[in-house]
Each structure stands twice: as C-alpha cells, then as structure tokens.
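Lab meeting prep.
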Amino acid sequence: MRKKLIAGIGLALVAGLALSGCSARGSDSGSDTAIKKGDTIGVALPAKTSQNWVLAGTAFKKSIEDAGFKADIQYAAASNTVSDQQSQISGMVTKGDKAIIIGAQDGSQLGSQVKAAKAKGITVIAWDRNLLNTKNVDYYVAFNNYKVGQLQANALLDGLKAKDGSGPYNVELFAGASTDANATVFFNGAMSVLEPKIKDGTLKVVSGQTTFQKVQTDGWLAQNAQSRMTNILTQYYSGSTKLDGVLSPNDTLARAILTATKAAGKPNPIVTGQDSETASIPLIMNGTQYSTIYKDTTLEAQTAVDLVSDLADGKKPKTVLDKKNNYNGVKTVPAVALTPVLVTKENAVEAYKGNDTLEALAKKG
C-alpha cells in the first residue's frame, strides 16, 4: 500500500464519463419550483443503527443552516422504519420543503413518496444510498461504493498475505442488508476482486456461502452478523480448521464478527470494515481489526448542501453518469461521487488528519 495519501478527499470524476449539467429545474424528472435561500430543506435519514447515521444529522443541520436555509431533519424510528420514513417524506412534501435529501432506509419502497415530491416540483436528492426503480430522483450524492468494495477486498488479500504468506486461505463473506441499495454495490465491488481468487483456489469459502442472498445481514444489525458467524464457526470450523479472514462490509458488523470468533476460541482472522467508527479505531491500531474505510460524513453532507446551494444560485451542478455505480433500475442518476480512503494501522494517523477525534484515536494507538 502506498504510504502517502492524497491530502483531503476530493471528487472522483471517473475518466471518460460525460459531465452532465442540470439546472435548478432538476434532471429529466423535472423540478418546477426554484430553490432560494431561506427555504426549508428536508433531510430524511434511516434509523440510528450506526454511528455514521448519528453524525449525519448533526452535519446536515450545520451545513444547511450555514448555507442560509432552514433544516427539517428527521430520523426513522428503530421499529417500522420504512413506513416511518415514508410518512416523514410525505410530511415534508405537504409542508412544502423545497428540496428533500433522502438517506433511504429501503430505497425500493419510497417510489410513491418521491413521485408526490416531484409532482410538487420538489428537488429530490438521494444521499449515501440510491433510490431504486424510480425516475423521480434528480441527483445522487455518495462515495464511490463499488470502489469501497474493491478496497475492502484488496485489504483482505493484503492482510492475509502479510499474516500467512501465500495461502490458500479459508475465508467467509458478509454483506449488508438487502434493503440497502449500497449493500449489493459494496458486495459486487468486492467480488470483482475476490471471485477470481476463489476460482483459482487462493481463497476457499468453507461454508460455500458466496451469493449476496446467502451472506446479506438483515437490518445491518450486529446481532444478526454475530449469530451467523457463530453458526458458521460451529458448523464448518470445528476442531483445528482455521478461519483466516472475513469480508465485513462495515465496522459494526466487523466487531460483531470478531466477538463471535473470540467466543469460539479462534485466533483473530483478518477482518475488513467501513465507516471509521470510533469503537473500531483502537481495534485497528492494536491489530484486532485489519482495516476500515474512511468516508467523511461531514464532507458528504456538505456536498449535498453545496448542490442545493448551486441550484439556488442558478448554477449547474457538475455530475457524472456512471451506470455501474448509480443505475437505479430505471435510470442512471446524475451523481456527485466522493473518493473513499482505505485505512489500516500503517496509514491511520495520516488518513485522519483534519478529523480531530479520529486522528487522536489513531495516535493513541
């Protein structure tokens, strides 16, 4: 891994992709109502199942208010999350919010709500997770999630090689919730790297569970990942059978997986992660968890608000059309894509420069 990182996280405009300019009237789904400073911007976020979502609300409130808008930020409840978010978005439409930024609990179940928003000329922005099977979404702001999966897979391979030489290696695969559009993108990105290694025998998935349907984690819940890991260890890793590595899609699930391996008396496998959660940084620095992905939530929120500000100023946001990352089943959503950063013990201090909390944890070791 290159030791030196590019300072700051910039926009990743994929070479060869055409830039698409969209006016304040939105994309081909058509916003009819101009946005102006002082208007209310709605932000609909899912349940607070990870630290990342908690941070998002705070980041959005500051960015929206600093930009001269009013903030209407709502989280789905821990139970009945989809119906709760549907009601919240409908309420934002009724109240007349001029733009609605949606971090979807389930991007496939908000079609009616965003259709109603578009009928009122409201700009709809998918944030962090795409909105699926609808033309009624104007923009998508997120990190390059296919790249996230590739970074995780390469980290898994690098960690295995550094720990155990040339292999072969026994590994298991985990993915996020099937209701999250990003989960399949993460997994597909990872499998673009791992599948050839499975086919040539470098990696052996002892459980045989290699499809997204088999490895997805309901609700992104830690207890579901821990339970599945425990069952896999009991069934396939009895006695001296060694588990060398686990592809984990985020830090919450990584810690749950490590809890299960510890309880089973298995030495720490190489485990990947994502989100740079504060609870995982010490684990990375002491070698318990191998890697995470840094996706600056504050930057991601600010980017969405900057897009709204551009629309209010009559500017054309610069977006990319990237079918691999941003096709929602109906259209390739014009997107602003941010660059994720792989973090291991070796580069953590440098990677987190500018984030006082994470940098301090990395320096503490």
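Slide two material, second protein:
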Amino acid sequence: MTSAARDRAPKPARKRFWFDPRFAIGLLLVAASVAGVVAIVSAADTSVVVLAARGPLAPGDHVDVDDLRETSVRIDGADGLYLLPSDLPADGLVVTKPVAEGELVAASAVGSMLGEQQTAIVLAVNGELAASVVAGSGVDVWSARQSDSAQTGAARFDAPAVIVSAATVVRLVDREGFVVDDGSAAVEVLVPRSQVARVLEAVANDDAISVVPASLPGK
C-alpha cells in the first residue's frame, strides 16, 4: 500500500473515557459511609489505660513499675478511680489496702508517704476479733493499763483508752505461729511512727489491748 493510500485509509477511532456521574456519587457515598463508621467507633472507644497488680499486694508493700502491668478498661470515670501509668512516680508508691493478683489498683489503695510515716506491729489482743476486722480494714487500738491487784489476787485494769486511731490491718496472724492465751487473737497493724513508742509501752506493761473496727465518718 502506497503512502497516499495509507493516508486515505480510515483511522481507528480513539477510545473515549467512560464517566458516569452516578458511579462517582456511589464512590463518594461509600467513602462517606466508611468515614462515618470509623468516627462512630472512635467516639465509642472510651477505654482508658490503668494499672493492675502482677501479684497480690499487701498494705505496706512498696511497688514500682515492675510490680504492675498496664491494662485497657472501659469504665466511666476510670481515670479518677484507678491508678494510671502517669500517676506512678519514679520512686514508686506504698500500698495502703490489699490488692489481689490481676486486680485493678484503685487510686485510694496506694500512697506516696505511708512507708515513711507508718510501720507494722503485731499485737496480741484480748478476746476474739470482730468479723469486719480483715486485711485492709481500719481499726482503733485500745489499751487498758493493769492496776494494782495485790489485794484481790486477780488482775484488774483501768478504764481503756484509744492509743491509735484508724490503724490499718495488714493481716490476721495465725495462732499457730504466735503465742497467745486462749480466747485471744493476734493481728498485724500499721500504726503511725509517732505512736509506736506508746504502743510498745502498752505491750511491755502487759496492758489489755483490744482492736475495734474504726467508726466510719458520719456514723
């Protein structure tokens, strides 16, 4: 075929780009739907990262980042109820209430100065303990000084008085591991260091010591 013939031959038609406005609208609707779902899910995700105990924690224990693990929860007001990673100082905190293994650490269950202000003392107390006296509960420690019993031949005691208010129970001591008389019990409590001497004096004088559940505010 000559060049003139090729020039006269019909050229193939170019393919036109197909565009349907309905297709574009459909794409926009799909994109808007996906964005809406993402926005709804993001708004509904109110989870907060808080700290939980890796193992059981007792009052008086010093805890740091190695004793705790982060966990995500969806609880209203969790950032005010539970310990957050940002709430844990570099030097750690001291436990004020028992925390079970895996349990979320309540903000009220730790303190920064307790270890410097309080110490644990084991007390032999007269009589049985109230059922509400358990690890982590607040108690008042009462003491009755022993008076002269020469005339009667039997021990007599003066009127009891509170020597420690709102002490924290660490644990109830097993009788097999603590020498106590029949009808008495032993309990380990956290007391302010400023009152330790008074408590030890009562113990040394064989005063009658009792542990009573602390009164709740407003009761």
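Talking points for slide two:
The longest helix spans residues 21-44.
The CA atoms of residues 147 and 172 lie 29 Å apart.
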